[in-house]
Amino acid sequence: MLERVRPDVVHFHNIAHQLSPSIIHAARAAGMPTVMTLHDYKLVCASYAMLADGRPCERCRGGRYYQCVLTGCTKGSRVKSLLSTMEMYLHHRLLGVYRLVDRFISPSRFLIEKLREMGFDRPIEYLPNFTDAGEFEPSAGEPGRVVYFGRLSPEKGVGALIEAVREMPVELDLVGDGPGRAELEARVRRYSLGHIRFWGHMNGVGLRERVARAQFTVLPSEWYENNPLAVVESFAMGKPVVAAAIGGIPELVRDGETGLTFAPGDVAELQARMRFMLDHPGACARMGKTARRLVEVDLSPDRHYHRLIEIYERTGKGR
Questions:
Q1: Which segments of the chain belong to CATH 3.40.50.2000?
Q2: Which of 10, 53, 201, 311 is the most exposed place for a label (fewest CB within 10 A)?
Q3: Cα–Cα distance between 55 and 138 in angstroms, integer?
Q4: CATH class belonging to 133-297
Q5: Going edge to edge, which strands form the sheet with 124-126?
Q6: 119: left (phi over 0), alpha (psi -120 to 50) or beta
Q7: Structural contact between residues 212 and 137, judged by C-beta atoms closer than 8 angstroms
Q8: Buried b vs exposed e over 7-34: b needs ≥16 C-beta within 10 Å?
Q9: Burial of 38: CB neighbours in 10 Å, binned 0-12, 13-18, 19+
Q10: 173 forms bridges with which residues in the sheet?
Q11: For residue 214, how far is the Cα from the chain centroid?
């Protein structure tokens, strides 16, 4: 394909397993400039997510990938963790494959800083995710209705969200699926929380219609989020976000401007932030409008495109 198309630049996304980093060697052998967008922490963490026992983990700092085996942090399996660890030493120490990439792109500044702290020293450009605001219709939503949409897994903090709203006068819609769903549903049944509903996986028009009904959305993550599209899409619909101040989230959810932040896992503070939104609908609406403008101006397809082309051109000239 490289010989037939002769591209000006090769841009990699999520290649680690399905395609494997071998395609980096192919592009290099063909003399092509290369760029890779970072969607997770694969370059410094054997399990991708910098998570162990449900909490942020930095034990692999400085290339100590064997820590993955000691903690069994790849899907809770020592065998899978061993394979992940061997892969890291092969790609980083023996083959040096990622050093063949000319330039990396990160959707968040947090990810850049964290990779630097962990010992990764390759050139990285900041380019946040984008969305086309014109495809989303802003709406005021229903007072007292709150939506979470995303993966239902422990690191997403949905358990803390359920605890926060147990006795709050809200209607909470949980949209998504994942390994934590059964336990969360059991908890809701155990406490007879009829104001909390699970909607399963949704996308497209169905998801937008559900989010449109919200007064605001919530992202209670307890791991190092990168540049979550759930926040960007909420903003595009004119919804402020109550979110945990962790990872790249605060770069989007600017406290008091486009939403409110709280310490991850702090149920009392999450509850207080949600109550503020409920008790101050005018402030909530104002933050929603500011959030929408952020998407229109800073996170637009046009802006993203021109910045990406600049990165491509600079990469080509630097070779």
A1: 133-297
A2: 53
A3: 35
A4: alpha beta
A5: 10-13, 34-37, 103-106, 124-126
A6: left
A7: yes
A8: eebbbbeeeeeeeebebbeebbeeebbb
A9: buried
A10: 147, 197
A11: 21
Please name the residue that has the structure tokens 């020592």. Answer: 78
Q: Which two tokens stand for residue 100?
A: 């063949």
- For the domain made up of 2-128+301-317, give the CATH fold: Rossmann fold (3.40.50)
- Residues near 235 by Cβ (< 8 Å), separated by ≥ 6? 241, 252, 258, 291, 292, 294, 295, 299
CA distance 87 to 75: 16
Q: Which amino acid is at 216?
A: F
What pLDDT tens digit does each residue of the chain (319 aa) get?
A: 999 999 999 999 999 877 889 999 999 999 999 999 999 999 999 988 998 888 899 999 999 999 999 989 888 889 999 999 999 999 988 899 999 999 999 999 999 999 999 999 999 999 999 999 999 999 989 999 999 999 999 999 999 999 999 999 999 999 999 999 999 999 999 999 999 999 999 999 999 999 999 999 999 999 999 999 999 999 999 999 999 999 999 999 999 999 999 999 999 999 999 999 999 999 999 999 999 999 999 999 999 999 999 999 999 876 6
Q: Which residue has the tokens 């709203």?
A: 165
Phi, psi of 220, rounded to the nearest 5 degrees: -90, 35
Alpha carbons 138 and 9: distance in angstroms, whole number: 37
Residue listed under structure tokens 């990779």: 115
How far is 289 from 142, CA to CA, in rounded Å?
16
